[in-house]
Amino acid sequence: MSGRATWNELLLVDERPWAAYAACRTVDSDLFFPSSDAEARHALRICATCPVVEECLDYALMARERYGIWGGTTERERRRLLRRSA
């Protein structure tokens, strides 16, 4: 990868084939690591249109992704989901 990688490029490096269909595939990955609630809302709106949002969330929960927006959830929302499933 040269220059700034897109979200999809980062995901494909890890061989997640569903990422090729992700709504975020052409978006700068920085958007999905927000520093404010307003930035998070923008990323979540993209997730709301994503055809592979469930696969993304499944991955994030399985991998225990601690940071960023994954599968239409914030860090806090994923922590709650993990506590409920424990």
Would you mind describing this structure in some detail?
The structure is a single chain. With 86 residues, the chain is mainly α. It contains four helices and no strands.
List keywords for this structure.
single chain, 86 residues, mainly alpha, 4 helices
Describe the largest sheet. Answer: none
Q: How many beta strands in the DSSP annotation?
A: 0
| Percent of residues in beta strands | under 5%
Oligomer: single chain
Mean pLDDT: 87
Shape: globular
Structural class: mainly alpha
If helices are DSSP runs of H or I spanning 4 or more residues, what is the number of helices? 4
Question: Helix-strand pattern, N to C?
Answer: HHHH
User: What share of residues is helical?
Assistant: 40-55%
Structure summarized in a few sentences:
The chain is built from 4 helices and no strands.
SSE map:
Layout: H1 7-13, H2 37-48, H3 53-63, H4 75-85
